């Protein structure tokens, strides 16, 4: 992980000035994050409880899945999800490398055999992402921002792609509302950098509203 943070030293200095936003924007953004995540946790708690019970009853393993992701300026944090795969999914990944359907350093497979029956549904409806509201409340993520990547992916980023780490990672961004897994890796990175350049309170609100429109039954969800 030292390698990731070392590579970000120059990015921090150059990108902060290039993509600088007002303090008012960040204060208002944090207020939206706190209020939005609290309301989400309270209102969606019945869905989360039912999901937790379904996962526990249909497959072995924990209800939640915590995984290290790279956040703003290379800070590593534990990102939470509902477990949608079999318990030994990480060990099985090495056998599926040749079936990768995503360009770049990421692994994506539409008919991934590691996904459980419940997991397929909660991925399709994005319910598996709901525990990340806790990450938002803790300040590790935002409601809107580039999706966080794994350390092994970030190490392979180009200098230009590492610019996405200037922003706090989020639950949704341009990638979520413009195609998700149908979008190639390079285009995804460009969309994240575009967000950093264009971000504003109004852009954030529009992305939140658009996310609700594509939340359920997204054909591009994996």
From TrEMBL:
Superkingdom per UniProt: Bacteria
Pfam families to which the protein is assigned, alphabetical: Bac_transf
Membrane topology term: Multi-pass membrane protein
Signal peptide stretch: none
Subcellular location: Membrane
Transmembrane segments: 31-55
Keyword Transferase appears in the UniProt entry: yes
Keywords: Membrane, Transferase, Transmembrane, Transmembrane helix
Domain Bacterial sugar transferase, chain residue ranges per copy: 29-216
InterPro entries: Bact_transf (IPR003362), EPS_sugar_tfrase (IPR017475)
Homology family: Belongs to the bacterial sugar transferase family.
UniProt-recorded name of the protein: Multidrug MFS transporter
Protein source organism: Clostridium omnivorum
């Amino acid at each position: 992980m030292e390698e990731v943070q070392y590579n970000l030293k120059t990015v921090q200095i150059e990108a902060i000035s290039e993509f600088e936003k007002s303090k008012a924007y960040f204060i208002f953004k944090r207020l939206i994050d706190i209020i939005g995540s609290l309301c989400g946790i309270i209102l969606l708690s019945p869905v989360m409880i039912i999901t937790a019970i379904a996962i526990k009853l249909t497959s072995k393993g924990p209800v939640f899945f915590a995984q290290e992701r790279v956040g703003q300026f290379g800070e590593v944090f534990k990102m939470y999800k509902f477990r949608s795969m079999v318990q030994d999914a990480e060990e099985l990944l090495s056998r599926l490398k040749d079936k990768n359907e995503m360009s770049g350093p990421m692994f994506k497979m539409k008919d991934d055999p590691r996904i459980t029956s419940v997991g397929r549904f909660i991925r399709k409806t994005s319910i598996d992402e709901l525990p990340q509201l806790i990450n938002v409340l803790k300040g590790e993520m935002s409601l809107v921002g580039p999706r966080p990547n794994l350390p092994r992916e970030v190490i392979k980023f180009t200098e230009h792609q590492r610019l996405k780490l200037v922003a706090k990672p989020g639950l949704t961004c341009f990638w979520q509302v413009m195609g998700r897994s149908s979008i190639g890796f390079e285009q995804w990175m460009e969309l994240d950098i575009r967000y950093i350049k264009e971000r504003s309170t109004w852009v954030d609100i529009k992305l939140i509203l658009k996310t609700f429109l594509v939340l359920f039954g997204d054909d591009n969800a994996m």
